[in-house]
Amino acid sequence: MSEIQTWIDIQASPARIWAMLINFAHYSEWNPSIVAAAGVARPGQRLSLTLAKKPGRTRTLRATVLEARAGEALVWRHRSLLPGLLDTEHCFTFAPLDDGAVRLSHSAHVSGLLAPLLRRPLARPTRERLETMNSALRERAERHNLPRQP
Fold first, then answer.
1. What is the per-residue pLDDT for 116?
2. d(CA 50, CA 88)
3. DSSP code of residue 143
4. Does residue 1 surpass a pLDDT of 70?
């Protein structure tokens, strides 16, 4: 599994999606894949990301922000054990669509000595986590577009 690429179209502005994506303190309110997060979306900054694993189990990892361009791209990398053993980069990129929506691309690139051994076992659950997060982000962003009821 060297790279898994997913995307989703979201009927919201890039600014709204960006604000939700970098508001790590509120991930627990909407994100079923990353159930807790802390940090600042600024290159070089460290993030703490708690992933939902099996029911009732989580795993916390540390990541470093590599790129953060408002409404354009967010990239972070986490390393398992030692650098070069199993490194994963998560990349979110924004592409405005003609209808005012945004196509959010969300990918995970895995590299390192263990990557070839884990390609098959990790591919399906990783894709499912990315797609689950994408759907939850779309639901939250689009829900905020609805007019308020009196």
1. 61
2. 15
3. H
4. no
- Give me the mean pLDDT over the 132-141 stretch: 96
What are the CB-based long-range contacts (under 8 Å, 24+) for 88-92? 90/63, 92/21
pLDDT, tens digit (0-9, with 9 covering 90-100), for 42-83? 999 999 999 988 778 899 999 999 999 999 999 999 988 777
Q: What is the DSSP string of 39-53?
A: ---STT-EEEEEEE-
Predicted confidence at residue 118, as pLDDT, reads 65
Tell me phi and psi for residue 70, to 5 degrees: -50, 125
C-beta separation of 140 from 20 below 8 A: yes
Strands 46-52 and 3-10: unpaired
Rounded-to-integer distance, Cα 148 and Cα 118, Å? 47
Q: Note the pLDDT of residue 120.
A: 67
Domains observed in the chain: 3-113+124-143 (3.30.530.20)
59 neighbors 69 (Cβ within 8 angstroms): no
The one-letter amino acid code at 32 reads: P
**pLDDT over threshold 80, residue 146:** no
Residue 81 one-letter amino acid:
L
| Alpha carbon distances (Å) from 86 to 48, 81, 119, 147 | 17, 7, 11, 45
